[in-house]
């Protein structure tokens, strides 16, 4: 444990450079190239995100970083080591939170932590102490001796994260950490992840929730088709690929096409959807006034700030990828 916190930094082999660095990284499955020569760098102590539609290559990249899938080409170092040669040493200093909870339902909440800790060769006394600390961190102390199965989805997710912290990891990989959780459970989980980051744990996250990426990630990459389409902080990406605001104009289906010539000069970019027009502009209210001045009467209108979701959809498209 160490230092009276949930995380005690392991300084063995600590390097001054990036915690994860990939150059021209490639992953092939037969003739399919899932990751196509990407460069990626994760700095110590940051929360880094991989965003992308299904099949973008983000899970394949995470599996290479997690030392469970060897790279096909390129260079990769994790914690200053080569995953091909030093996989066990890297995994000993890493925590992994899979997309689906894989808790042992035949054990209690406490036993899930203690048994997992023994896999790392930790003493029984150490894992008992560690379990107490992690139960408090995960807000599960009162459920410590309960069976796992009756727990809510949010409780199971917090337990899965607590289990991944048993070995005091420097690097925590989280695959879709809040999928299927209600808003209250998501916010509680975010709070726990913020606490980890403040204590020096480096986080790498994949998520389909754009608000989650904006909340959690210092930096992120948007992947599409096995390549990196964009990289930066959420604010940098919004500034680079969108406008400050978006004006949404809703119409009865089919009527919005006839409005396009009347309003397209009011926006930096205009997008036509089945029931609305999206006008990307730095001054949404002013654009709305001009829309009304031209006699356009939508069913409803909304001025909102641009979000990471606007960036994501612009870079990867709105078509569903299975």
UniProtKB/TrEMBL annotation:
BP GO annotations: response to antibiotic
Pfam families with a match to the protein in the record: ABC_tran
Protein's membrane topology: Peripheral membrane protein
Keyword Transferase: no
Compartments reported by the entry: Cell membrane
Listed PROSITE patterns: ABC_TRANSPORTER_1 (PS00211), ABC_TRANSPORTER_2 (PS50893)
PANTHER family reported in the protein's UniProt record: ABC TRANSPORTER ATP-BINDING PROTEIN, ABC TRANSPORTER ATP-BINDING PROTEIN NATA
Gene Ontology molecular function: ATP binding; ATP hydrolysis activity
GO cellular component assignments: plasma membrane
Organism field: Amycolatopsis arida
Domain ABC transporter, residue spans: 20-250
Similarity comment: family membership: Belongs to the ABC transporter superfamily.
The name this protein goes by in its record: Lipooligosaccharide transport system ATP-binding protein
Presence of the UniProt keyword Membrane in the record: yes
Top-level taxon of the source organism: Bacteria
Keyword terms: Antibiotic resistance, ATP-binding, Cell membrane, Membrane, Nucleotide-binding, Translocase, Transport
Listed SMART domains: AAA (SM00382)
